[in-house]
Amino acid sequence: MNDLAVADTILLVDDEPNVSNALKRLLIHEPFEILSATSGAEALKIMMEHPVDVVVADEQMPGMYGSQLLAVVRRRYPRVVRFILSGQATLDSAVRAINEGEVHRFFLKPCNPVELCISIKQAIVHQLLAEQTRNLLRGYQRQAVLLSQVETEGSDLLKLDTDTQGALVFDPADAEGDAAQLLAEIQRTLSR
Questions:
Q1: Residue 158: predicted pLDDT
Q2: CB 6: neighbour CB atoms within 10 A?
Q3: Residue 4 has pLDDT above 50, yes or no
Q4: Are 20 and 61 in contact (CB under 8 A)?
Q5: Which residue has the higher pLDDT, 147 or 33?
Q6: Where, residue-wise, is CATH 3.40.50.2300 in the chain?
Q7: Which CATH architecture best describes the domain 8-132?
Q8: How many whole angstroms separate alpha carbon 60 and alpha carbon 15?
Q9: Distance between CA 143 and CA 84 in Å, rounded?
């Protein structure tokens, strides 16, 4: 997922090219790279060759329902946001899309283009924030491991000296062996 200033890739999947073309025209002024496919198989082939951020799929397509396509996308590319468009929404198709494809949104055709565009942008921002959260969590976990090592292996690092005004003073040059390596690793981690 990219910042919205950089083109995020949207894949439109509909067996009626006129529908995909109409959606492309609606999204033409948005910061998206727009790809299209006329079948689920073609969409999966495109996704193997090109990273995609959002898939908007028609539910009623020959060969593979949109919900079936999105179930495959969910398994292979779990971070891709998935939307369904349906001209003939039934409870069965909605439940299938939600349960199998874990769709982000379910739109009825003809959908409101502003609502679709806003939903795509919100989903992209949501995915970006989720990725940033995962990165922060990984950084926190690395730091927690290092602090644990300091507690067990670097007891000489925890000796506190104060200056004449009571401020803590620490000289990394005073650390020896494993403690010095731990301190260097902590400094590298904190500077990331």
A1: 55
A2: 9
A3: no
A4: no
A5: 33
A6: 8-132
A7: 3-Layer(aba) Sandwich (3.40)
A8: 8
A9: 41
